[in-house]
Amino acid sequence: MTPLSPTTLEEAAKAVDAAEFGYHLQLTSLVDGVSTYTLTYNDLPEPLTFSDKDDAYLHLADRKRTTQATAAITAYLAQREKEGFVEVPNSALAWLFGEAPDSDGHWFEPPELKEGERNKPYWWRSKLRAMLTAAQSEMKNETT
Length: 144
Known about the structure:
Layout: H1 6-18, E1 23-31, E2 34-41, E3 48-50, H2 53-82, H3 90-96, H4 124-143
Antiparallel strand pairs: 1-2, 2-3
Helix pairs in contact: 1-2
C-alpha cells in the first residue's frame, strides 16, 4: 500500500469535519398508538417519514457515514492528484501488462502492419488513454 502524506491525511480529515448537514426529527403523528416521525434534512427538499424512531436514527447514521466517507475519499483523490498521482483502473493495467483483454476482447499486441509499414513504438498510448478516459467518465457518473 502506498504511504499517505501528512497533507493527504489532513485534507481527508478536514473534509470529514466539513461533511456536516442539518436535520430535524419530529414526532408528527400519534394515532391509536401508531407513531409517525418526520426526518427533514436541511439540504434535501422532501422530508422522510418513519413509523419507528430507531429507523429514522438508523437512516440518519447511514447518511452521516456515507457523507463523511464520500468527503474523505474525494479529498484524498484530489490531494493525490495535486501530488502527481492518478487512479488507474485494474482492467487498464491488466491489459497493459498482457494479463487480460480490453473491453473489446483485444489483447495487448501491436496492430497488424500493412506491407512496408514500420511498427510505431508507442502505439499503445492512445488505447490506454481511451481506457483511462472511459474509467474517469464512469467515476464521474457514479458520483453524480
